[in-house]
TrEMBL record:
Signal peptide range: none
Molecular function per GO: protocatechuate 3,4-dioxygenase activity
Organism of provenance: Spirosoma flavum
A Pfam family assignment: Dioxygenase_C
Family: Belongs to the intradiol ring-cleavage dioxygenase family.
Name the record gives this protein: Protocatechuate 3,4-dioxygenase subunit alpha
EC number(s) given by UniProt: 1.13.11.3
PANTHER family: DIOXYGENASE, PUTATIVE (AFU_ORTHOLOGUE AFUA_2G02910)-RELATED, PROTOCATECHUATE 3,4-DIOXYGENASE ALPHA CHAIN
C-alpha cells in the first residue's frame, strides 16, 4: 500500500507552491510571467528589470522564499481594480510574485514600470513582501532606486531610517533599465524591515 509522505513543518504556510509559482517552471527568463508586472511595452512608462537574491545570515541564497512586489504605476497611481486570475499582463496591476526556488541561483526577476511619485515627499519606490520558512511572520521592506538621489533626499519615509542603513533599501543600477536588489536577512548589511 502506497502512502503519502508527511508534509514538512513550516513556520509560514505551508505553501501550495504549485499554485503560487506554477507558471514559472519549465520556462526561460523571458517567459517568467509570474515575475512580470507588465508585458514589455514602452507606451505606458519606462520598462525596468529587477534582479536579486535573498541571503541568510551565513551568506547563502535562500532557495524557497516567495517575493511579492506591490507598486504604483508610472504616474504614481496604485491599481484600484481587483486583479484577475490568470492576470492579464497587458493591464498593469502593480503586483507580481516570484519563487526563488525556480532558478538555479535562487534569484528573483521582475519586469515592471519604474514607478512614479505617489506624493510630493516620496521618491519612486516599490513595496517588497517576503514569505519563507524559518520566518514566523511576513517580512516587509521597500526598494528605492540608486539613480534617484534628489528624490531619495526628500523622501520622508526613507529619511526616517538611520543614514548608515538606508543603502540597504537601494536597488543598484547596473545598466539602463536594469537594477540589482539583494535582500539580506541578517548580518552587518541586514536589509531594513518594517513593523507593519
Amino acid at each position: 500500500m502506497n502512502t503519502l509522505p508527511i508534509t514538512p513543518s513550516q513556520t509560514v504556510g505551508p505553501f501550495f507552491a504549485y499554485g503560487l509559482t506554477a507558471r514559472q517552471y519549465g520556462y526561460d527568463y523571458t517567459s517568467l510571467m509570474d515575475g512580470m508586472l507588465i508585458e514589455p511595452r514602452e507606451s505606458q512608462g519606462k520598462i525596468i528589470y529587477i534582479t536579486g537574491c535573498i541571503f541568510d545570515g551565513n551568506g547563502n541564497s535562500v532557495s524557497d522564499a516567495i517575493v511579492e512586489l506591490w507598486q504604483a504605476d508610472a504616474q504614481g497611481q496604485y491599481a484600484a481594480e481587483p486583479i484577475a486570475y490568470p492576470p492579464d499582463h497587458s493591464i498593469f496591476t502593480g503586483f507580481g510574485r516570484f519563487g526563488t526556488g525556480t532558478t538555479a541561483n535562487h534569484e528573483f526577476f521582475f519586469t515592471t514600470f519604474k514607478p512614479g511619485l505617489t506624493a510630493e515627499d516620496a521618491a519612486p519606490h516599490i513595496n517588497v513582501i517576503l514569505f519563507m520558512r524559518g520566518s514566523l511572520r511576513t517580512l516587509y521592506t521597500r526598494l528605492y532606486f540608486s539613480d534617484e538621489p534628489e528624490a531619495n533626499e526628500r523622501d520622508t519615509f526613507l529619511n526616517s531610517i538611520e543614514p548608515d542603513r538606508r543603502n540597504t533599501l537601494l536597488a543598484a543600477k547596473r545598466t539602463d533599465g536594469h537594477y540589482q536588489f539583494d535582500i539580506r536577512l541578517q548580518g552587518s548589511d541586514e536589509t531594513v524591515f518594517f513593523d507593519l
